[in-house]
Design brief:
This protein is of the alpha+beta class. The chain is 42% helix and 27% strand. It folds into 6 domains: 138 residues, Rossmann fold, CATH 3.40.50.2300; 108 residues, Beta-Lactamase (2-Layer Sandwich); 103 residues, PAS domain (Beta-Lactamase), CATH 3.30.450.20; 99 residues, PAS domain (Beta-Lactamase, 2-Layer Sandwich), CATH 3.30.450; 72 residues; 136 residues, Histidine kinase-like ATPase, C-terminal domain (Heat Shock Protein 90, 2-Layer Sandwich), CATH 3.30.565.10. The chain contains 21 helices and 29 strands. The chain is flat and about 130 Å long.
Length: 714
Amino acid sequence: MFSVLYTDDEKALLDIGKTFLEREGIFTVDTATSAPAALDLLASHTYDAIISDYLMPGMDGIEFLKRVRGSGNTIPFILFTGKGREEVVIQALNEGADFYLQKGGDIQPQFVELSHKVRLAVQQRLAEAALEESEERYRAVVEDQTELICRFTSDGLLTFVNDAYCRFFELDRSRCLNNPHDAQLFPEDARRMKEHLAALTPEQPVALIEHRIRAPDGTIRWQRWSDRAIYGKDGRLIEYQSVGRDISEQKLTEERLLESESRFVAFMDNLPAMAFIKDQECKTLFINRELEEQFGAAEWIGKKPHETFPAPAADRILSDDLRTLKEGRVVTIENLPEKNGRMRTFETHKFRIDRGGNSPLIGGFALDITERRQSETALKESEAGFRNLFNHTGDAIAIHILGGCFTEVNDEFCRRLSYTREELLTMRPQDIEDAESAHLAEARLAALKNDEHTVFEAIMCAKDGTKIPTEINSRLITYHGQQAVISSGRDITERKRADDALRQANRQLTMLTSITRHDINNQIMIILAHLSMARMESPSKAQAELISKVEAAITTIRTQIEFTRVYQNLGSHQPQWLAVSSVLRYIEAPKPVVVKTDLAGVEIYADSMIQKVFFNLLDNAIRHGGKVTEVRIGYHQEGDSLILTWEDNGVGIRAEEKDLVFARGYGKNTGLGLFLVREILSLTGMTIKETGVAGEGARFEIQVPKGTWRIARR
């Protein structure tokens, strides 16, 4: 049964309505002849729906509706009135009425329709309440979970997050909803995640993925997510629901276990001895690679000595095994046949492995004494050969313990520095290095530890104080169980002299070029002055044309001279890391040209003249692009390279001119702008090409090779 409150100032109409509605057997109806009376009933009773007239004295139906909704009551409200004006209907619905029904006409159909509207409104509200209750129960369950739970749309906008999710990512729920949450995934994991979500289908909507993530505190964590794609009845993707948990400890345990097993197997397989493990019944459980290769022992697993060796040898082996279980450790010398039949002598060490409450095991390793003796002889010969090579090479070679003294020096090292071997073995590398280069020692050591190899130049000091420029090639090694550095040094005194001479020649050439350019510019000024005076003499038309041609030629000469000034500076400074956005900061485009950039964090290793690249590209766009109003500068990655893009909305470049525009002298003006662009870029291995479509604008792509670009984190 549904309880209904019916309000109308017409008592007769109330009685008729009550009769009609209660006749169906599903409604009980209370009546009120005014809105205030109805509000009193509503305060003391619970109803499933309200029916109200519009025109009533004191308080009309709309005001009654406002009072009900203003109190927070969402009860279904049907306005049942004789007024059919459109503005009343609109106002009623805007104020929260569920239905609007006009009086008039036949009574029975009218109240049948009213009954239908009431039933429909009540059922709809009950359904909404049930849904809200269901969602609240679901939300309560979800919020109590320790798993991270979220929902998000295909474009990454969060539509729901639980408390655990907010706590882990340190998010404010009110701020993150309807916004993307770009969790800090590693590039490879981000690619896998994208492929993982793309693979979900209506037929297979659920899948698991594990990946790493950088947590807000900077630590790297492992997470496992169960992702479900939620589709509508039409098969259209609505959103994703993800349930995740932190599995860092589990991963760490797995990694430690795998690492432990891997270390054990790697250790055993790399032992210069044959190793094995047996159970208390003397059955073989494990053999290492050396034992398998020497005896073909893979078939020994699960077998006792008498199943793998002839009787006399098997008896000795079994006796030693049992003695090991009793005494704890046994060392024997055994003669055993290899798989090829040859007898070999082995020194075998066996020991009991106690395992608490479990049965003990037998561990052991066998040393092939024959091979060891041969190895010792070969090692002595090898050491003699190494010593001979060490002492007779043309380079100075030394070995020193990391952070300590020299442990080995060759004859050339002693000769070059005029120290005895004994003296050098008490010294450290910094003791023989000039202070001018010794301050770089920490940076070199860091590079060596990072790459295990480094080449650098230093100034070595001989015993008599002579300074020797030296190119040193150092490599990190293990020497007698310690971390050490082996270095070879080459005297580069002559090369340094040649470099100094070349630098001096370049300085003189630069000075000569500068003086010559200055003198030429002075003469050009004189010529231009004379030409200006000639124009003042009112020359004939033919003479004026000749003067103009001379002036044009002089302008070209000036441009060429200026080009030599710019060109001579190419490569004169050490390249450096430059933020592209900072370089572009000083480029101002003339109106109405607008420059748009998307280069946040992009840095390139380039010559300091890189700014001229962008100046010339802008100048080229303005001069030759027609009515250019917009320039766009961005980037993307292709393989290991970074591609910087420069685009304008001008006329573009014809296909047959795409390569010619970079040639020196090509073009309508000096033909030096794009030529200079290419030359500056080439200093650090960068290249440029034009890839635009004629008629749609020019597009230049600058390829920055691997190692000369990076994206700085902000």
